[in-house]
Design a protein that fits this description.
Layout lengths: L2 E2 L12 H6 L5 H4 L4 E2 L8 E2 L8 E3 L6 E3 L14 E7 L12 E7 L5 E8 L11 E2 L6 E8 L2 E8 L5 E4 L5 E2 L5 E4 L2 H7 L22 E6 L5 E6 H5 L12 E9 L5 E9 L14 E8 L6 E4 L7 E3 L4 E6 L7 E6 L5 E4 L11 E2 L7 E4 L8 E2 L2 E4 L4 E4 L3 E2 L15 E2 L5 E6 L7 E6 L1 H4 L1
Antiparallel strand pairs: 1-8, 2-3, 4-33, 5-6, 6-7, 7-8, 9-10, 10-11, 11-12, 13-14, 14-15, 15-16, 17-18, 18-19, 19-20, 21-22, 22-23, 23-24, 25-26, 26-28, 27-30, 28-29, 31-32, 32-33
Amino acid sequence: MSVRSSGPASPSPQSSRRSFLHGAVIGAAGLAAGSLLPRNGLGADFPEGSVPGVPIRALTSGPKFHWFGYYDKEQFDPTNRFVLSNEVGFEHRTPTEEDTIGVGMVDIENGDAWKELGRSAAWGWQQGCMLQWIPSTPSSVIWNDREGDRHVSRIVDVKSGESRTIPKPIYALSPDGKTAVTPDFARIQNLRPGYGYQGIADPFVEERAPKDSGIWRVDLETGDAKLIISLADVAKIPHRGQPIGDVWQWFNHLLVSPDGERFIFLHRWREKFDPATGKFSEPFHTRMFTARLDGSDLFVLDPSGHTSHFIWRDERHVCAWTKPDGKDAAFYLFEDKTRNVEIVGEGIMTVNGHNTYLPGTNGEWILNDTYPDKDRRQNPYLFHVPTGRRVPLGGFFSPKEYAGEWRCDTHPRSSRDGRLVTIDSPHGGNGRQIYLLDVSGIVG
């Protein structure tokens, strides 16, 4: 493991996190954004794209590029001091099977020093390598990698340096950190390039709904894995009363409930796919399922065909962007195993984004963002559910080169106490980098 400094000078040990953030020097990547807005009275300037009241600084800088990826993984350690990151030396193209990335973490209380933890040969621009802290452990992280002709996952204790390999990749983890659920990434790469991994061929590429491909439950203590839901199983469940066995299907976007009893997965399909050329039809269709962690008790929570980003609010409710039958596209709150659904943020959260609930706020605050608007600015924000108030966290320019598979969504993530937010953004002129925002002044 290597350590290097990538940010401002370290504060004194007596400094609190709050004074550290408010008094921090804006990183080089932040300064590159252009003009500075007026100071907020707390000792921090605002680079172009940020807003008063939300101190911001770059956690990473060039010449290499840094990002975390998806929005529903734990990026902050239990102390909220160490922030995980991927590192790569190129942008603007599809990874090849020879391309690897660095896996590391930033110490936000020690000059944003970078510590490399390992490398991965199983990654993509949107979700990285599934890098995340393992819940209910003080210092263990996990990420996906490729070993020969199989995908695996690496577990590393960042304090002791001890490591081990699980002979299966992971996607989402249970709250006790003992179990993972995972789809087949080779299958995903065929039908949704950029969300799977290069380097391993799908053995079922010529099958529409193979019985031996699907969702696996992985024991993170023993490494044992079991196929719990197959594509063939789910293909037998009609969509709006119609059979769907003759379309090309895959699973993606899994997430375990806060109590560890159930998990979500998206069942997706395309009407046409050519295994010989890899060409497929647009658009794809989606329905959202929930199930128990052993694969039983399947329930179609959103049968609309339009489910996009989602998050558990609690063990019984899921907030998702979708378009239910007869309704407008919006965020809706679903009650699991029922047909109870209600709109969220009506007239305010009006575009699709990457939504989570801030921890420690009892579901009162939603953290969200937008894709680039007409001015190519991405707009992370907080939404206060009880009052309907939307609080902007900035508008960050995304150059036109960041599009399609290698776009850089902000994917806002929060610390475990809900007072800090990180985003991935190329607005600073140094390519994609990770920025830290202090939202404590908003949420209290």
